[in-house]
Amino acid sequence: MKQSRYEEYETLIKFSPEEAWELYDTVYRNFGWIYTSLHDYDQALEYFEKCVSVKRDHGVSPHWFDQWDLGKTHARLSLQRSRPEGLSLAARLIREALDMHRREPDDLIMRCKMLNSAGECLMVRGDFCADSGEARRCYDESIELHEESYQLYMQVLGPSKPLTGWAMEDLAGAYQRRQLPEKAKPLLLGALRVECSKDIIKLPSMARLLDSLLELHEATGDRGGLAACQEAINGGLANLQRRGVDQSEGASYAALLQKIAKMLLAHDVQNRPLAAELLREGLQYLSKATPVQRLAPARDEQERIYVPKAGQQDLEVDARALRRSLEDDQLQELTSAQSAPPFFEVVDDDNDDAPGTFTCVD
Known about the structure:
The chain is mainly alpha-helical. The protein has 15 helices and 4 strands. The relative contact order is 0.07.
């Protein structure tokens, strides 16, 4: 049903809110979710507020779900209007919902999602605080919420589920804002492992996590630690190949290979031969790719407040521009000295057409 036909739909109910308030509560909530999916957050807020009003008119207190919907919608409106101060209200509403939800001790997954929502609000609010002390307070509260969410996910789901991977990445982001890179590193690596092993792996998410890990390890002078990413990268490439993503999204896959080549070179210059091989492989994919290829970002669940991370927007790849970049990088690598053996080597399993995977050379 189109959202513009609400008045027509209301006339079909044949009951007034006074006669069937529970029905109207459900209708209001559904329309709030519809408008949320359309990014019309003003209309969504109006309907979520109606959910609260129709309950109060009948002596019923708002549900924790009402508070959560209101908080998330205020957060989205704040971001949409570039008014970050509204995130404080959003966080308060969601924390009120959390207090109500703790009376339902068995519903831990929903609590994790609410903890994540509140943590996101406070983390982004801290990014826009002019006062450094206030920013630190927001970050510390965000860490507290994200830590609880992560620990509960680990308890209920374990380390390999997508929700746990998102929690790892969110907590790592909060740690980085408080200048705690050593706490962030294993979480980002864990998030990469989750993404690379997912049933529906998202190439943009894998690329984003590789960028984050490379940036963090370079900033801390821990280039050697990048070797820990090897197994996840191998698994991710194999996963993408099994699902045909390397063929259907050739330009984006070539861009991913370029990122991996940069990571190899950052780890050790002795990896030049393998980096050059990856760049050549990327050029082969580009020869079959369309000039411009756009990928949709990974879709987080509706309960999450969507705060784009670096690289999480639509991944748009211009194949011709990428070709020039790969050719420039390849030329540089092929003309560099390659006297020492590589840390990684390409294993093709006697299949010249299959993209290589990495294995460690002792």
